[in-house]
Design a protein that fits this description.
It is a single chain. The chain has two domains: 145 residues, 3-Layer(aba) Sandwich (Rossmann fold); 216 residues, Rossmann fold (3-Layer(aba) Sandwich), CATH 3.40.50. The protein is built from 16 helices and 14 strands. It has a six-stranded mixed β-sheet with strand order 3-4-14-9-10-13, with helices on both faces. A hairpin with a 2-residue loop joins β11 and β12. The longest helix is centred in the middle third of the chain and has 24 residues.
Length: 403
Amino acid sequence: MTEIQKPYLSRFPDAEGYFGKFGGSFIPPEIKTQMDAIAEAYEKFSRTHAFQSELQRIRVHYQGRPTPVYHAQNLSDYCGGGQIFLKREDLNHTGAHKLNHTMAEVLLAKMMGKKKVIAETGAGQHGVALATAAAYFGLACEIHMGEVDIAKEKPNVIRMKLLGATVVPVGFGAKTLKEAVDSAFGAYLQDPESQLFAIGSVVGPHPFPKMVRDFQSIVGKEAKAQFAEMMGGLPDNVVACVGGGSNAMGLFSAFIEDPVAIYAVEPLGRGTQAGEHAASITYGEEGVLHGFNSIMLKDAQGEPGAVYSIASGLDYPSVGPEHAYLSSIKRTQAVTIGDDEALDAFYTLSRKEGIIPALESAHAVAYAMKLAKEKPYETILVNLSGRGDKDLDFVTETYGFGN
């Protein structure tokens, strides 16, 4: 009898958290014990009716799901080619996709008897989402954020504090996302018994790349069904920005086994010179960072390299291990968009559709605009992962209001 091949999402990661050679858990034994406990609790609780019914109730009545897929006709006409569709995660409560996994993570923490959640944030969207979830479930919340990002993303810092979170400024190193992860992980190690480290992307040691992907997969499931209802089939192209990669894995997860081109859009920043971008898949090499093996940018000494992007949520020197794997088997294609192109998309989507995107999402929109010109008879589904409220002060004070 022929053995039935399990679906991709059931096969990856394996029991040790590996996607091919990427992933795993490179952490001290005492912390691995905690991670194993989280993995066990995830497998136990996430399969119960109590967990799933509560999460479904939250998504519908609190988050406002499902978010719509919108045909951006004006933008498509402007590009003069392919038809662009936007998965409107900017309409999710708190303004981005991040609440999809933070509500589930904090629900899990509650069921595990944890008293506090702790995390890093770059652009502040994960921090706001975690603070929101902590307020909802009545847990304490501590968010570590680089001083550079605090200055750029002031509206989100205010939101976190209003929601009752403690915001810890991180002032060492480059003072951005990598250092925020370092700082948050250090604080977590002081009391791993009563705290849950709610990692904000598909990164970190096992089980977080799997957990966050699974919680974010609602984006792809909804988008696939919605697009089929609108257009009678699959999109030709699927596009999302990638820093750590949670919004992208949320969308990509539904299309991995379908005949669809998948594009992971990385931040090229100011250019290809080291330290001027954060395009880990495109320019990186294999390496271990923050407890997982993936593709990362390195300096001359083999340490994590300096990174930069106009979008605070994308300036991370590595990428989720599943993204590294999918790129290595050529299921996804890593492409790059620079600051100037992202800014142009930020202004253009605002003017043509009345939708102000997050700078992170603007990278995906910018690449979709390119594709639309190159593939005039194809459809392009973009994850509009967040809205741009958080970026308004920074963009207008630094670059003005566009042409």
